[in-house]
Amino acid sequence: MDCTNAQTLLDGYLDGELDPVRNLEIEEHLHGCTRCSLSYSDRQVIRGGLKTESLYFKAPADLQKRIQRSVRQAAKAEAPTRWLSWSWLRVAAPLAAAALVVLMLVPFFGGPSSDELLTQDVVASHIRSLMVNHLADVRSTDEHTVKPWFNGKLDFSPPVSDLAKQGFPLIGGRLDYLNNRPVAALVYQRDKHVINVFVWPPNRTRQTSESITKQQGYNVIRWTRSGMNFWTVSDLERSQLEKFVELLNASKVSSTG
């Protein structure tokens, strides 16, 4: 199977619509083709994102009351004559149609915020790095090897710390792309759990406290400090990831102090 056929069949494969023979063919192709594997992982991320509650917006309670009130008022105007019955239908049908349109449009007006979209992108980048086995462009446990590697590749110098003594060894670093710009991705490990730390300068220099969320089973912690945005994501349990963030911030304070 070539890439053209694989790209055509990816959606059907993702939805479980292919026959067993086609499934085996496309699985074999995905194992050997990085490009199609990336396309498949992107589709998985998009599909997972579309199932999140952030894409749905509950209609306001007063909207239902207004619709019911309009229908009751129209019903009161109904007379026993056949002519008035048809007249009521002519009034109620447009009201019902308008209410249906409003209910269908409400989710679009309550879509995900920019922070929610960025969180989805961060998690997608983390998943992608695990699926295509591309955790690091520079593999090293030495912070003095990883930090200089970014020179000339980014318009900022990311802070790099090795936390091996505390149980979170540095694995390496790579370039990534988030928030419409190149960013630094620092990779750490805790037992068999991978931790990605995405770093880039903020649009505003003000310091922000930690914000913790969960997306697709991954814990995400973000904060702004020392002129940098930090987004940390891992399947590590929340308390362990919070400990890692505490150690990371402490190491940066000691290195600048």
Short description:
This protein has helices at 3-14, 20-32, 34-50, 61-76, 82-109, 114-131, 143-149, 238-256, and strands at 138-139, 170-178, 181-190, 193-200, 208-215, 218-225, 228-234. By secondary structure, it is α+β, with helices and mostly antiparallel strands.
Structure description:
This protein is an alpha+beta fold and 257 residues long. It folds into 2 domains: 3-55; 112-250, MucB/RseB, C-terminal domain (Phosphorylase Kinase, domain 1, 2-Layer Sandwich), CATH 3.30.200.100. It contains 8 helices and 7 strands. A hairpin with a 2-residue loop joins strand 6 and strand 7. Helix 1 (3-14) packs parallel to helix 3.
